[in-house]
Amino acid sequence: MKAPSNPWAGRFREGMSDRLVRFNTSLPIETRLFEADVRASMAHVSMLSATGLLTAEEGAALERGLGAIREDWLAGRIELDPELEDIHMNLEMLLTERLGEVGKKVHTARSRNDQQAAAQRIFFKESTLQLAERVKLLERTLLEHCKQHGNLVMPSYTHLQRAEFTSYAHWASTYVVMLDRDRTRLLDCVRRADECPLGGCASTGSSLGIDRWKTATQLGFRRPTMHSIDSVSDRDYLVEFTGHAALLMVHLSRFAEEIIVFTSQEFGFLRLADAYCTGSSIMPQKKNPDVLELVRGKAATAMGDAMSLLALVKNLTLGYNKDVQEDKTSWFSALDACMSSVDIMSDIVRTMEPVAHRMREATRSGHILATEYANYLVRRGLPFREAHHVVGELVRKAEDRGVDVSELDVSELRAAYPHFADDVRELTIEGVIRGKNSAGSCGAEAMARLYDELETLLQSPTQTRGDRTKELNT
User: Fold this and answer.
1) Is 460 among the catalytic positions?
2) What distances in angstroms separate CA 464 from CA 116, 239, 461, one per listed residue?
3) Which UniProt keywords apply (predicted)?
4) Label partner for 301 (CA 20 to 30 A): which of 47, 280, 367, 391?
5) H-helix or E-strand containing 407?
6) What is the spatial distance between Cα 120 and Cα 124, in angstroms, rounded to a whole number?
7) Of 159, 207, 411, 438, which is the active-site residue?
8) Which fold has domain 365-444?
9) Spatial CA neighbour of 161 closest among 382, 330, 395, 458
């Protein structure tokens, strides 16, 4: 007897309308989960054989059939049937067409509810680990860039106004620290998702003698999920992921924005490689940072994906609900935005060039030594608040004369406060930077310690067990 095109045909007198078939299908969005579904089915069959729910011959036939389907899929020789509802029915139909009646036994002791949850978690673990690896590559690329250009000085900013000064490497390494938080958040999310839902069945488990630990172990999961209802209704890991993805994209967007600002003619601190810029259809002189603007735009999409998933699950009752078929739309959108943006930012960092003289020139104005003048007075016993007031008056005097505070004569400084001496002229930007060596500061010693700490973080592994033979970024 030919397998029915839907698993509930025995209950209904007529099939679904054409419009419902089109509306109900999840096939277009979930195709990339097919290979994971095949692997989960292979582990499920192995468990059924081990527990006696399949004969040795049946189990061997099913494993061979699933292996052949997987091989054909990876080679691009399988085209899924859009008339079938989802990847699971496509897989079962393919197996039945190839093996006959024994193909129908693949669904013993499972539901599409736990089958879907398992395929998603397999793909989730592998794709999230792959993203974490790509974030690590961006961190590594940026860290090497910092080391290459470690001695350059530039202004530091608050409110986008020149505030103090720092090294270029100190500025750029900020994003390494931020990105490492993103990477470890992703790994933490994978740790919580590292449980196998197979065996939860529709929602209350199975009365057949299955071994969920065997299935979980074979698929590389840490353990089976603790609760059968939670197995099929939990989407917390996707909510977590899209939240982490949104924050990662926010960090990339901030980095992109600063690069855009620093490559503008008004700043001129950075140059982008021609290969990562676009031109204008009307203005021949233009060199536009469109790729960085797209990163900013994709951050907005990722933020919307996180909110969309929260809204999707906020009022669902326990057990499986068809609403969660839509979870992949937000999940894959956020995943793809992160993958492509992290990769392009690695290319940008690898090829961009700091313009040393423009950064150094920018430190010669904006009264950028004012804070160090106040610190100079603090070292001579003046309370900081009073020192702040004294130097503030000097800045006002310099502005009235149209000069930088560092250009005032020592006699004028001494007139404002007698503890100013000739050695105030020894305050130089490079000298002050060298002296800032408390933890996290911009001095050479502090930066060396930071590099060591970041190197240690980047040596931590991101891989866990699991088959990664299929490229996930499709």
Assistant:
1) no
2) 21, 21, 8
3) Amino-acid biosynthesis, Arginine biosynthesis, Cytoplasm, Lyase
4) 280
5) none
6) 6
7) 159
8) Ribonucleotide Reductase Protein R1; domain 1 (1.10.40)
9) 395
- Residue 230 CA to its chain's centroid (Å): 26
Residue 388 — left, alpha, or beta (φ > 0 → left; ψ -120 to 50 → alpha)?
Answer: alpha
**Which of the following is catalytic: 17, 264, 280, 460?**
280
Contact of 350 with 387, CB cutoff 8 Å: no
Q: pLDDT tens digit string along 177-206? A: 999 999 999 999 999 999 999 999 999 999
pTM of the predicted protein model = 0.87
Which amino acid belongs to residue 157?
A: Y
Instruction: Tell me whether residue 57 is exposed, middle or buried, using C-beta atoms within 10 angstroms of its C-beta: 0 to 12, 13 to 18, 19 or more.
Output: exposed
Q: How far apart are CA 207 and CA 204, in angstroms?
A: 9
In CATH, which superfamily holds the domain spanning 113-157+167-361?
A: Fumarase/aspartase (Central domain) (1.20.200.10)
Residue 280 appears among annotated catalytic residues: yes
The fold for domain 18-108 equals: Fumarase C; Chain B, domain 1 (1.10.275)
Q: Beta strand 223-224 with 195-196: parallel, antiparallel or unpaired? A: parallel
Predicted confidence (pLDDT) per residue in 114-142, tens digit = 999 999 999 999 999 999 999 999 999 99
DSSP 320: -
* pLDDT interval class at 364 (50, 70, 90): confident
